[in-house]
Amino acid sequence: xxxxxxxxxxxxxxxxxxxxxxxxxxxxxxxxxxxxxxxxxxxxxxxxxxxxxxxxxxxxxxxxxxxxxxxxxxxxxxxxxxxxxxxxxxxxxxxxxxxxxxxxxxxxxxxxxxxxxxxxxxxxxxxxxxxxxxxxxxxxxxxxxxxxxxxxxxxxxxxxxxxxxxxxxxxxxxxxxxxxxxxxxxxxxxxxxxxxxxxxxxxxxxxxxxxxxxxxxxxxxxxxxxxxxxxxxxxxxxxxxxxxxxxxxxxxxxxxxxxxxxxxxxxxxxxxxxxxxxxxxxxxxxxxxxxxxxxxxxxxxxxxxxxxxxxxxxxxxxxxxxxxxxxxxxxxxxxxxxxxxxxxxxxxxxxxxxxxxxxxxxxxxxxxxxxxxxxxxxxxxxxxxxxxxxxxxxxxxxxxxxxxxxxxxxxxxxxxxxxxxxxxxxxxxxxxxxxxxxxxxxxxxxxxxxxxxxxxxxxxxxxxxxxxxxxxxxxxxxxxxxxxxxxxxxxxxxxxxxxxxxxxxxxxxxxxxxxxxxxxxxxxxxxxxxxxxxxxxxxxxxxxxxxxxxxxxxxxxxxxxxxxxxxxxxxxxxxxxxxxxxxxxxxxxxxxxxxxxxxxx
Length: 601
Ligand code: ADP
Ligand code: ASP
Ligand code: MG
Fold this sequence. Notes:
single chain, about 600 residues, alpha+beta, Carbamate kinase, VC0802-like, 10-stranded antiparallel β-sheet, 8-stranded mixed β-sheet, 16 helices, 27 strands, about 30% helix, about 25% strand, binds adenosine-5'-diphosphate, binds aspartic acid, binds magnesium ion
């Protein structure tokens, strides 16, 4: 006997027959003695169809009216599923987000959940009914009942939030694949099913493009210790468990709106090695990091910035003890990384042994562009200059002068109201994990580069704050290592990626702001893709990034940008190379298997 929350995605409820099959599965769970709350998505691709209708009327529809429209999709499914259950003799009732009392912030089309009222749900459960709840929606105020939606793919988040609010025994996410696979099986046909994955890994994978789970759902599961499993709607296979350590108890108020940042991490045992003006051609990163791995040097942060002409800058960090050896590798290797065979001097190698890395982490920053900007502003206000910046949706890391570290930590902990935590993620896992758990591809990114940004504290903060004010989320931010003197002012280039839909706005907006900020031109490239590897097992294991770069080099794929965090490595490549790149790295880490996943249409 338990309380189970089940969620069925669009394909799983895409037709009357499928809704009837879902009803059978629900009844089997109920007959096993469980109480059930069932969350459903809109049927098939009906949310897309509604978006299309809106666009036919307006190029830029009001977000409030969009929510009004999109929330109808789920309402169709809840009523049909309840009817199907009743038809089979199972008492059931359908409820919208408003009827349940799923209270969100007043942010149309991307609202986060404040809290969920459980009284009405409990009452119907006690009456022996299966409660069928509309996913993806809530209301922003109990008086006006303003309908909000949680953002595309948000039904997963509704389900996990309900499981947390009801303290359910488990949350089962039913979808059109057998669980979480090593890659999207639509792109990599020999992707394999995992029996389990940690929340930390899944959070990275989901935010890097594996849309099988909404990243915010993973965050709630991690914060509240919800037992989550992803399974197929069409088979009895046990699927993939998403595991996390038992969390500290936390209040059910502000479910998603607690702190945007979970932790401030720092590492003072870091030294930075930078190579300036490295040739921009396939295989370069592979050779350099391959050699470092050969020498058993564990590289932490790797950043490759945009190129100017036909050269790149590559910077990486290692422990202080490894700095000399890393420098020797970089220097010895230099001439091989030059643009032409005639150049014997090789790229310039710079080593800085007095640096520290500070990071902020937390899924609360997803979709909140102001958070990274707030980190930069906080550091700028403390007069701290940022050297390397590397970001993902759930992590922002900067290197700074070692002497600034204490002040940086104090300022960040205060700004984000958190304690500074351990220097590293803990690799302690229930089972030993492979270095790379899965790979992901994000095709919806565009790259922007701003040339010649004056190198003074506060400028990165200023730029990203302005973008945040336009509600543009910046994903991978890379500040170049190389500095240049423009009319006597030291400048650096900054490159970053944004969602493709935001690229035009970002370009127009930045181009206008440029003269005022004293920067050079802004360049945009939408024909890019981001490929990533994720795995807890890469913590403390040298050579993983090198292996990824090698796989890309073997396919003659040029790497445009590199950014790493502790458990992931992402590379920006040309869009035309994206799927080849994804398959190549999937194969290189031995993730392929014999069993092919069938995906129903
Ligand atoms: P639902 O409608 O059930 O929420 P989604 O379409 O949102 O389903 O998510 C399931 C899809 O996610 C799969 O059909 C698959 O194409 C895609 N996907 C991407 N990455 C992965 C992965 N690593 N494992 C499984 N599925 C993935
Ligand atoms: N129906 C919504 C969408 O298509 C929510 C969901 O399916 O998770 O985005
Ligand atoms: Mg989904």
